[in-house]
Amino acid sequence: MRWNVLKTAVCLGTGLILYYIKYGYLAIAYIKKRCGGPTCRCSLKLDNKFVIVTGGTSGLGLVVTEKLAYRGASIIFTARNLDEGLAIQECLRAKTKNPNIFCKHLDLNNFASIHNFVSDVNQLCSKVDLLINNAGVFFYPPKETVDKYDVTFQTNYLGHFLLTELLVPKLADKSRVIFVSSAAHSLTKSLDLSTVFVVDEGAQGISARFQNYANSKLCLLLYSKNFAQRFKERGVNVYSVDPGSVETPMYRHFPFLTNPILKAIQKPIRFIVVRSPIQGAQTILHCALSPNLSSETGLYYADLVAKASSDLSQDVQLSSQLYDHSRIWAGLSQSEVLA
Predict the structure, then answer these.
(1) Which of 28, 149, 243, 331 has its CA 20 to 30 A from that of 46?
(2) What does the domain layout of the chain look like in residue ranges?
């Protein structure tokens, strides 16, 4: 009798445990799918199109490069470590059966490197149909570049500003320019153009470093709107994208992830709510491919739809002032300033 009761209790307990495991797994899968965002369903082919992707050796940039290569595009992706980039180039060529994938060196923290990269582009192609400004850093320690600007500011904004301006003559009619921004831009409530680029050695704390990142992404968004307005008549379409929180190497400087204990504690939560690079790349791909966006420019996208960016990011006067300052910061001559 007691043995039968014990067997019944064990069976019921096991069944209950399996029930919770099953539906717990389904709940986690559902939450992860919801957090992952929608999927780009565009089937557009990119034969005879030339694409540039900055920061293409890992994370979002690598995913975007691969997906566009499958569609037949000729692609230049950039790398700071050229040896690593060339190895990835060969892997992508073999994987996608697309021989027109090229890795070129680009260090956004060095204006000379940007000019050299543009020279490489001029030799490789007659036009650029799609420019994806993806490279970036997050939570980088206060440090000065060779051009005397803050690393976060130059990598995320000023380097891309110079690159985009220098590529203007190459942009084809009906081309697209995508800036990978962030919802963090809305954390900046005011922008001082006299100090935003300055290295603050005292900015070692979490809030200060995060503010540097937010400032750089706000500048990128302001510039995207200015660029869209300047080249609207040429048919150049400009999109800013918030990919969401994505599991990429960009987080390598974030203190909560550099500490092994904190990283282990966060890992289950991050697995559920943080997007994979493939999930994070969907809105970038949507803006690159969707024919439905051909009449839109200067807007901000998240989860495949246009959304309102912060009020400050829509300040036309601030956008114009930032452009004027950026020309000076980047050392652009009058002949290199178009429209």
Answers:
(1) 243
(2) 1-36, 42-336
